[in-house]
Amino acid sequence: MSKIDGSGKRCIAAAYLEDVETIVRELDSDTRAGLSSAQAQLRLSRDGANELRTQPVKPAWHYLLAQFRDPLVYLLLVAVAITLVTWLLVEGREWPVDAVVITLIVLANALLGFIQETRSQRAVAALAKLTQTTSSIIRDGVLSRIPSHQLVIGDLLVLSEGDSVGADARLIQANALRVLEASLTGESEAVSKNAVRLRIEVPLAERSNMVFKGTAIAQGSGLGVITAIGMATELGAIAHLLDVTPEEVTPLQKEVREIGRMLAIAVLVIASFVVVAVLMLTQIHSVDDVLRVLLLGVSLAVAAVPEGLPAVLSLVLAFGVQRMARNKAIIKQLSSVETLGSASVICTDKTGTLTRSEMTIQQTRTASGNVAVSGVGYAPQGQIHHQDQPMTCGPVHSENVLLLRGGSLAGNAALAQQEDGTWVIQGDPTEGAFLVAERKLDAPPRSIERFERVAEIPFTSDRKMMSALVIDHEHNDERLLISKGAPDVLLQHCTQVQVGMDVVPLTDDLRAKAVADVNELSGAALRTLSVAYRPLATSEDGAAGEALETGLIFIGTVGIIDPPRKEVAPAITEAHRAGIRIIMITGDHPRTATRIAEDLGIIQAGAGALTGADLDKLDDAALAEAVKSNSVYARVAPSHKLRIVDALQAQGHVVAMTGDGVNDAPALKSANIGIAMGITGTEVTKQAGKMILADDNFATIVLAIREGRGILDNIRKFLRYLLSSNMGEVLTVFLAVVGAGVIGLVDEKGGIILPLLATQILWINLITDAAPAIAMGIDPHSEDLMTRSPRRPTDRIIDARMWGGVLQVGLVMALASLLTVDWMLPGGLIAGNESLVEARTAGFTVLVLAQLFNALCARSESASALVGLFANRWLWGAIALATALQIAVVHWSPLNKAFDTSALTLSQWGLCLAMASAVFWFSELRKLGMRLHQGKAIRHQKLRFF
Asked: Phi and psi (nearest 5°) for 576?
């Protein structure tokens, strides 16, 4: 029965044809305790991780070589080769300084790109670890949850609604278990499962006693023994379809690539023009002269195109996403940041997201009257709660004992006292509230052994109720069905009502009282749950499932308080200020939802809510009108969430949608940003969502949107900087060729003198591109970030206004550099008396310093550079490094020879600094004009309303 599959891993062949006992024995496992930790570790070492085959991890040298796969780098390498050939053919020449310098610069650029690429890869890998799936198993007799890749053959896999199945398993138990297998078999409906052995071979879709890796538990619970992992699973059999997932290309990445191509074409045209003009207008005496001109053209093209832009972009996105993860917002893909920053609507659940999920039963309502309950609540699963205050009640009626006890039995939570007297709640917070209230109720205590739960009809979002089959050992093993659920749903299943110790028919008056109780509790912003029961007759021993949930005896309703999180109201205010609309979509009662929405500022008093029943009456056109104004939806089903999201998207909104249950997955996938709950969310929703909220806190969503906006803002900053700086280099050479006679860049024979050499252009590209751009990518966010309207999906990152600024700043840089050269050279507009080498060194230095001034100015399109001038210490570090390197290239003799520079005097440095600062002053004046124009536009807009 055991075999080795094609990947070398052990598995159980045709496990669905074998009985459970045989399989467990073959795997040396145990149906109660599972494997031991030692067994699991041995099998993990032997069989490897439970993972599908993926592309092998690329070695570091691969990323290093990738830096040279660029057409512009090819041009440089060809130029180096030509230089070396010329040097070899011409006797008596010195060392080929140009070739050596260009080679070193190419290597330095490649090293910088390699470092950026590997750091980005490490950041993405770290994020992948945060979003890995987990599975519940039994090892050493203890239930625990582990990463799914650590599952081994023979593990006992515990299955619950919302879980993603981590490996192929033969079912041992199945309780109303239904599995979504569309990802494997294409079956759109959930498939019912059982533990019955099959006798004949059947297709994969008909193996009812198996669950398979990659599928999802839609309903119920179960227990199975793992029979195959990794590539030995059924999903592994089609792994060749899943091996390679192409990386998603975002509109931002597409736009950046398009800009790169456009710039490459434009600059190649300009470089060709420069080369042809210089060759035609300059006296060429040797092959070396031709080579120098060609090197200039090639270097100009390489320096003008920010070829490292994609690597810088990926690195900045990765840093931003890691920062979000530290703030409890885990983004699964870098590409989602762009969409998150553009969100215009947040559709959010209420419980646990807007509220604290600290459930406490505050009131009970039965036919005999009302009881106000007070006392200490408790915290969510895994947290410690101090039960140091007694709970006080009003008059205790027998129904209250039944109500709270029934609610406790019809649930899966547990209450355990620790050695230090504190309590730990395990399970659903609402179910835990019944346990706490029952324990503090002034009523005769029940023993743990009295009631035995033998079966369960699980809760689903469609049914809105659940039931437990219980045996009462103190009353002749009487069998009881205890149900708990939404009051309006549960009342439909009831025909009688508990009044004191008596059971009477559920008359219209008693039903009306029960409904009034629910409305009153909901009006006080309390969540309501009702409990009912009935004894089961002996004749019903063979019955099971939902057919038993009829003729119930209604006991009463509890009102549960779940107060809003204190940080949510300010977050909603900030979201509204940012132009983001907040919509609450919940399964709670409309009055509860409305009250919480009013308290948090989502709606104004009296706005009301639409229910799922209301939505069912609306066609698509009517729904489109409804979503324009309505911001609270109550008693909705998952299908309603999908309709709401689709209607909002049809109106051009970028929608962020929260969800935690299995049936929320379609809405999360449909939304632009699906946000899965990290604490209460199921594995299915975590896989469907693009973002995981580690703390289930709405305020974290707003914080993540702010961070997303900040990342996009910073991307615009370094794009503005890179493009305008590179434009300055191109225009410097281009204008020098066009206006050589005006500024005195001509030799004695009338030939053109170039203001910059090829090596100098490459040096500028090396020291001013990468470090300042990355530093701007992590710039502190602007204070007005959340006062702007959301970015529309059709808006371009680089719009017409930014292009105008890029050209203007580039032109100022070029004019400042050329004017400095003219200032120092004899002739031209300004008569100087310095040598060509000194003049060229000064122009070269001005261009470097101008770009560093530009780094300060590019941090904002309209705000003064003096605002938050020293906020970014990384940017100042990059500026200091570039300045030190430029001083070295001017004053260190080995670099003087390599870059054909000479030392500058203190007064010449002062001139260079003053000329370079023209970029700063021009940018400040330009921004002042923009602010004045915007202020005038705002005043004009206000006057229109008077």
From this structure: -60, -40
pLDDT of residue 353: 81
Which residues belong to CATH 1.20.1110.10 in the chain?
A: 64-120+275-323+705-781+798-940
Gap between the Cα atoms of 803 and 262, Å rounded:
13
Q: Express each pLDDT in 39-80 by its tens digit.
A: 999 999 988 888 876 555 567 677 677 666 665 566 667 667
Q: Which residues, in sequence order, are CB contacts of 114 under 8 Å at separation 6+?
A: 60, 63, 64, 67
- Architecture of the structural domain at 64-120+275-323+705-781+798-940: Up-down Bundle (1.20)
Intervals of CATH 3.40.1110.10 along the chain: 360-561
Per-residue model confidence (pLDDT) at position 831: 78
State pTM to two decimals: 0.69
Q: What is the DSSP letter of 795?
A: -
pLDDT tens, 565-610?
888 999 999 999 999 999 999 877 788 888 889 889 998 887 888 9
Q: Provide CATH 3.40.50.1000 ranges for the chain.
A: 329-353+565-696
Task: State the DSSP code for 449.
Answer: T
CATH of domain 360-561: 3.40.1110.10
Please identify every stretch of the chain with a pLDDT value under 50, giving residue numbers as ranges. Answer: 4-8, 91-92, 241-248, 375-395, 941-946
Query: Which amino acid does the sequence have at 814?
Result: A
| Residues 6 or more apart whose Cβ sits within 8 Å of residue 365 | 514, 517, 518, 520, 521, 556, 557, 558, 559
**Domain 2-50+151-241 bears CATH identifier 2.60.40.10:** no
Position 592 scores a pLDDT of: 81
Per-residue pLDDT reduced to its tens digit, 690-738: 888 888 888 888 988 888 888 888 888 988 998 898 889 888 888 887 8
Count of Cβ atoms closer than 10 Å to residue 883 Cβ: 14
CA atoms within 13 A on the CB side of 715: 28
Strand order in the sheet with 691-693: 329-331, 691-693, 673-677, 655-659, 345-348, 581-585, 632-634, 610-611
pLDDT at 215: 83
CATH topology of domain 329-353+565-696: Rossmann fold (3.40.50)
Provide the residue count of the chain.
Answer: 946
Classify residue 635 as left (phi > 0), alpha (psi -120 to 50) or beta: left
Residue of 98, 349, 660, 779 marked active site: 349
Nearest to 599 by CA among 560, 561, 563: 563
Residue 378 buriedness (CB in 10 A; 0-12 / 13-18 / 19+): buried
**Contacts of 821 by beta carbon, 8 Å cutoff, 6+ apart:** 736, 743, 745, 755, 839, 840, 842, 843
First and final CA of the chain: distance in angstroms?
Answer: 86
CA distances from 688 to 21, 349, 461, 703 (A): 36, 16, 18, 21
Q: Rounded to 10 degrees, what is the CA torsion of 343, 347, 353, 359? A: 170
The identity of residue 126, as a single letter, is: A
Q: Is there a catalytic annotation at residue 140?
A: no
pLDDT of residue 632: 93
Q: How does strand 610-611 pair with strand 632-634?
A: parallel
Give the pLDDT score at 308.
60
DSSP codes, 847-908: HHHHHHHHHHHTT-SSS-TTTTTTS-HHHHHHHHHHHHHHHHHHH-HHHHHHHT-----HHH
Q: How many other CB atoms sit within 10 Å of the CB of residue 161?
A: 22
DSSP letter for each residue of 247-273: PPPPHHHHHHHHHHHHHHHHHHHHHHH
- The DSSP secondary structure of 343-388, one letter per residue, reads --EEEE-STTTTB----EEEEEEETTEEEE-BS----STT-EE---
